[in-house]
Write a structure and sequence with these properties.
Dna Ligase, domain 1; 30% helix; 33 strands; 686 residues; six-stranded mixed β-sheet; alpha+beta; nine-stranded mixed β-sheet
Length: 686
């Protein structure tokens, strides 16, 4: 028996896999204490946790701590002369021509950034051992001023962390209980600002994550769970709670990463063929545009040829980068709770403000009064007010109408036209985001299928597909809990990096292989502590490369261990990637610099089989209602189906609405829907 729980901004989702059967549960998230919703969803299963042998969790607790600035008061110890690295950033501006623009405040304010006399040179040689007594004195003063967590980032510590370790040992002896995070352990990679920022983020969210996991693990143990709690990381792998707290920044974005793995598994498991595309273009079920529309935002992701796009860093907000491998997911303000508003010129906008779970959309009557995307869908009868969570949550069409009327009156439109405008604007924002991530990087979106999930994804999937030119949409069996399902379909994974900074033509394959082996040894050691058997360990190799004279590098995936044949392939692999990313590439003989070595240690886990959908006759609609389809025909009498009635062999011709516990799928005129082998609903344009 396995459980996956994903905490979202509005709902907390749980998937229970037992003897090849899936059951799902959704409860409202509890922002004040996210673990309460996790425990409530677990209790709703009615199962004893003593029977569960895997509990996987995706959480937003660290992401929220940064966004809402609720992390631990943090101090920073750095090399004398480098106190302001965090504030100087990269000397860029978030708004180039706005002279009144101010950057977001640093996570560590200047008065809590202190200097230590020490020095390591650019080759890793310690020129001056640290003033340990001075470092302890600074740490003591910081604690007296209210600091609860400490980051240590010394110059060139990525080459030699001895000075950082000496300072931590002294501080832990003098101030036991104060968490100390070292840059040489968090990110042994060059570039002082990025390393400092990543270490500071870890120190800022680390105590929050530790407190949350300790509380949750204790509660699970009291309820009978006897195994390690597994936490989803942003790189698409799982880690034990103990390992995750050592590098807490790796948990930022953990929930959305699980969704990408689920959509890939569902695409690979499907026995359906994509609808034909004009112009000789062929779509594939392993080329996926993920569209996760939740209560607060829409997460856009790409899977190409069966592999998610990864990037080695991302920016939490302007001037706060975090450098570690992360599945490339971009979020925009287009969720069910996204608020519609008018600017001073009377122009309609969507978001990024969201009503979230508290106070929620106006139609939920929990205190929200501003018009949202959910209110628009209720007013257009695309959502059934009495069906959310099978009626567990009721929605008020009157409250939705009142909220939208406030915008409609200002626009001089009726409420239906305004609600449709809100819907179309949200779709337009999503389409723009998809084109940015496909067309602008040289990919043809027509080669992809859309996997639409989240509570609101299936509501808008075909409209997005129409505008992008995609003819096939996959709706997962349980769209609203797809990210929770992904928690059960992944492996344990840890990523390691080491800065190398050598020219490829000046090193031998054995030198590079030796450096990789040091990373592999660390990976094997960590996986062993998590109970992964040696026979289940797999190493994945990559390296950051650049042509001599370039400022930034690209991450190139390697086909295997660094042997002579891989060494010989590197120029061609890099040239191909450079061409794809930038539209040009130098001559194959251009000198290449190896900047960083990257290695992922993967502990393969048994993957559960997705249950197959029985074959049966076509389903009959449960009811009919008038649904607004805008330009496709306005108000149309529409059959409404129950998703549980759809078996393999069923075919639904649009217009139609398919309702289920966790989501609603809208099938407009010109589209059809058919379930595949594992119960995904395949929508095709005809």
């Amino acid at each position: 028996m396995r459980i996956g729980v994903d905490v979202g901004g509005t709902f907390t989702d749980l998937v229970l896999l037992e003897d090849g059967r899936l059951s799902i549960h959704k409860v409202l998230s509890t922002p004040a204490d996210l673990s309460m919703a996790v425990l409530a969803a677990t209790a709703e299963t009615g199962r004893s946790l003593a029977e569960v042998n895997q509990f996987s969790h995706g959480t937003t607790v660290t992401t929220n701590a940064v966004i809402m600035r609720t992390g631990a008061p943090t101090g920073l110890l750095t090399t004398r002369g480098f106190r302001d690295v965090l504030q100087i950033r990269r000397t860029t501006r978030g708004s180039l021509y706005d002279f009144q623009w101010d950057p977001p405040a640093e996570l560590v304010e200047r008065r809590w950034r202190r200097e230590v006399a020490e020095r390591t040179d650019a080759f890793g040689t310690v020129l001056r051992t640290p003033d340990v007594d001075g470092a302890v004195a600074e740490a003591r003063r910081l604690v007296e001023e209210g600091v609860d967590s400490l980051a240590v980032c010394f110059i060139n510590a990525y080459l030699n962390g001895a000075n950082e370790r000496a300072v931590r040992s002294a501080i832990e002896g003098a101030l036991p209980g104060l968490p100390v995070y070292l840059s040489s352990a968090i990110l042994p990679e060059w570039r002082e600002f990025e390393r400092t920022s990543t270490t500071v983020v870890s120190a800022y969210i680390g105590p929050v994550l530790s407190t949350y996991l300790e509380r949750l693990e204790s509660a699970l143990r009291q309820r009978g769970y006897g195994y390690d709690l597994l936490l989803m990381l942003s790189n698409g792998g799982l880690a034990t709670a103990t390992a995750a707290t050592e590098r807490p920044a790796y948990t930022i974005g953990s929930g959305p990463a699980a969704g990408v793995l689920a959509q890939l598994a569902l695409g690979q498991a499907s026995d359906a063929a994509p609808a034909p595309v004009t112009g000789g273009v062929e779509a594939s079920m392993t080329n996926i545009i993920g569209m996760d529309i939740g209560g607060t935002s829409t997460d856009i992701s790409l899977v190409y040829d069966g592999k998610p796009f990864l990037r080695s860093d991302f920016e939490l907000e302007f001037g706060t980068p975090v450098s570690y491998p992360v599945i490339e997911i971009d979020s925009i303000g287009a969720g069910g709770g996204t608020i519609a508003w008018l600017d001073s010129g009377g122009m309609l906008h969507m978001g990024p403000q969201s009503a979230g779970a508290d106070p929620g959309p106006a139609c939920m009557e929990l205190g929200g009064t501003e018009p949202t995307l959910t209110d628009a869908n209720v007013l257009l009868s695309r959502l059934n007010p009495g069906h959310l969570l099978r009626g567990a949550i009721s929605l008020s069409a009157d409250a939705a109408r009142t909220a939208i009327a406030s915008v409609a009156d200002a626009l001089g439109l009726d409420v239906v036209a305004t609600a449709d405008g809100i819907r179309r604007l949200a779709v337009s924002n999503i389409v723009f985001a998809i084109r940015q991530r496909t067309v602008e990087r040289g990919l043809d979106p027509r080669e992809f299928v859309i996997v639409a999930y989240g509570g609101a994804g299936p509501l808008h999937a075909t409209e997005v597909a129409d505008e992008v030119g995609i003819n096939t949409v996959l709706i997962p069996p349980h769209p609203g809990v797809t990210s929770a399902l992904g928690l059960l379909l992944t492996d344990i994974r840890h990523d390691f990096v080491s800065t190398f900074l050598r020219l490829r033509n000046e090193v031998t394959p054995s030198e590079v292989a030796g450096a990789y082996e040091l990373l592999a040894a660390r990976a094997r050691e960590l996986l062993a502590t998590e109970g992964v058997e040696a026979g289940r360990v797999e190493m994945v190799y990559a390296m950051d490369l650049r042509y001599v004279g370039q400022t930034h590098e690209l991450t190139v995936n390697l086909p295997g261990p660094y042997l002579q044949e891989v060494h010989d392939q590197v120029p061609r692999l890099f040239q191909t990637l450079h061409q794809a990313e930038y539209g040009h590439s130098p001559n194959i003989d251009e000198p290449i610099e190896i900047v960083n070595l990257r290695l992922a240690g993967v502990g393969r886990m048994d993957r559960p089989e997705l249950p197959e959908l029985p074959v049966g006759e076509s389903a009959l609609p449960q009811s009919h209602r008038e649904v607004f389809f805008g330009e496709a025909g306005g108000w149309i009498p529409t059959p409404v189906y129950d998703r549980d009635d759809l078996l393999r062999g069923s075919r639904i011709d649009g217009p139609a609405v398919v309702e289920q516990l966790d989501s609603t799928t809208v099938i407009p005129p010109g589209w059809t829907g058919e379930p595949d082998r594992v119960g995904s609903l395949i929508l095709r344009r005809h």
